[in-house]
Amino acid sequence: MKFIVFLLAVFLLVWLLRGAIGRRSKGQAPPSTPGGAAAPQTIVACAYCGVHLPRDEALPGKGGVFCGDVHRTAFEKAGAAGS
């Protein structure tokens, strides 16, 4: 039984090495993300709960930016009640 497991491990190692060497010899680069590297995004915090999210996903409102419409509404209601 040990001999069979050993042979399977050797076969797997040879198979992986053969694939890596074949890829290099053909000049193919490993797969990368489409479109290259993305530009860094500005991260902002929700004024209601403090969760961090990219600026283009944040919703603007009175008193800052918010992670969702529910938090924007709750923040604006709390501000109106507190005034």
What does this structure look like?
The protein contains two helices and four strands. The protein has helices spanning 2-25, 69-82, and strands spanning 43-45, 52-54, 59-61, 64-66. The mean pLDDT is 85. The protein is elongated and about 75 Å long. It is α+β, with helices and mostly antiparallel strands and 83 residues long. The longest helix is centred in the N-terminal third of the chain and has 24 residues, at 2-25. The relative contact order is 0.10. Helices cover 46% and strands 14% of the residues. The strands form two sheets. Strands 1-2 form a two-stranded antiparallel sheet.
The proportion of residues forming helix, as a percent range, comes to 40-55%
| Total strands | 4
In the predicted model, the low-confidence regions spanning at least 5 consecutive residues are none
Series of H and E elements: HEEEEH
Number of helices: 2
Radius of gyration: 27 Å
Structural class: alpha+beta
Anisotropy-based shape: elongated
Main β-sheet description: 2 strands, antiparallel
The N- to C-terminal Cα distance equals 78 Å
Q: What is the mean predicted local confidence, pLDDT?
A: 85
Strand residue content: 5-15%
- Report strand order across the widest sheet: 1-2
